[in-house]
Amino acid sequence: GQSLEQPSEVTAVEGAIVQINCTYQTSGFYGLSWYQQHDGGAPTFLSYNALDGLEETGRFSSFLSRSDSYGYLLLQELQMKDSASYFCAVRDGADKLIFGTGTRLQVFP
Amino acid sequence: EAGVAQSPRYKIIEKRQSVAFWCNPISGHATLYWYQQILGQGPKLLIQFQNNGVVDDSQLPKDRFSAERLKGVDSTLKIQPAKLEDSAVYLCASSLMGFGEKLFFGSGTQLSVL
Questions:
Q1: Chain A partners of B29 at a C-beta cutoff of 8 Å?
Q2: Distances A14 to A8, A76, A77, A103 between C-alpha atoms, Å
Q3: Distances (CA, A) of A29 to A46, A87, A105, B111
Q4: Which residues does chain B have within 8 Å of residue A35's beta carbon, measured at their own beta carbons?
Q5: Which among B1, B6, B3 has a CA at the least distance from the CA of B75?
Q6: Do residues B95 and A95 make contact, with C-beta atoms less than 8 angstroms apart?
Q7: Please, which pLDDT band fits residue A1 given cuts at 50, 70 and 90?
Q8: Position B50 pLDDT exceeds 70
Q9: Which residues of B touch A (CB under 8 A)?
Q10: B43, burial (CB in 10 Å: exposed 0-12, middle 13-18, buried 19+)
C-alpha cells in the first residue's frame, strides 16, 4: 500500500521556528512536494525535493532523505498568516501526486 | 495569467440525485487532475488526464463517478447517483506535462449531500 504520515497538529508562537515531519511508504518515488492550504482555500505549492538535502525558499525550507523515506518542512520567523494546513505529497510516477493526511499549524501571538 | 477555474463553488443536493462539476485548467497545461478532499483529510486523487486521455482512474468509483476531458481542455466530473459519503470538496488541478510536482489548484466545489 501507499501511506504518508504527518503529525495532525502543531502549535507555535509568532517568530518561532517549527518543523513538520513526513514519512512515506509508496510503490514509486520521484520526489516530495509540500503544499499549504488555508481554511476554505485551495492548496498552493511551496517546495519540491527530488534529491537528498535541503531546499530553501525564503522563510520556508524543505529537507529530504530518500534512504530514510523521510522529509520535513521548516518554517522560520513564523507569522500569524502561516496558520494553515500543510501537506506533504509524493510524486509517484511521472505526473502523479499522492497527498498526506496534513498537519494543521496554529500560530499564536 | 488566469488560474484554474471551477464551478459551481457550492452545491447542495439530496442523496440519489446527480451533480456535475466543471473545470477549466490553466492554458497550456496538458495534465488535469480531479481530487476529492473530505473535511480534515488530504486530497485524494480521483482521476488524472493527460491531454484528453486518462492516465490514472484507479480510485474513481466508476459505478457512480464519471469524468471526461473533451478536446484536451475543459473537464467535467459527474456523480450519479450521489451518496451521503460523497460530501466533500472537489478540487481540480492542472500542471505542465512533466512537472507533476507542482500542481495549480482551483478553488474547488464544496458538495453537500443531504
A1: none
A2: 20, 10, 7, 18
A3: 19, 16, 26, 32
A4: 103
A5: B6
A6: yes
A7: low
A8: yes
A9: 31, 33, 35, 40-45, 48, 50, 55-56, 91, 95, 97-108
A10: buried
CB A73 within 8 A of CB A100: no
CB contact under 8 A, B105 and A44: yes
**In the numeric block, which cell numbers belong to residue B20?**
456535475
How do residues B61-111 score in pLDDT, each as one tens digit?
999 999 999 888 999 999 999 999 999 999 999 999 888 889 999 999 999
Residue listed under C-alpha cell 518561532: A16
- Please report the number of interchain residue pairs, chain A to chain B, with beta-carbon separation below 8 angstroms: 65
Check B50 against A101: CB less than 8 A apart.
Answer: no
Q: Do B107 and A41 touch (CB under 8 A)?
A: yes
| Percentage of chain B exceeding pLDDT 70 | 99
Q: Say if the Cβ atoms of A45 and B102 lie within 8 Å.
A: yes
Chain B CB contacts of A93 below 8 Å? 56, 100
Structure letter (DSSP) for residue A80: G
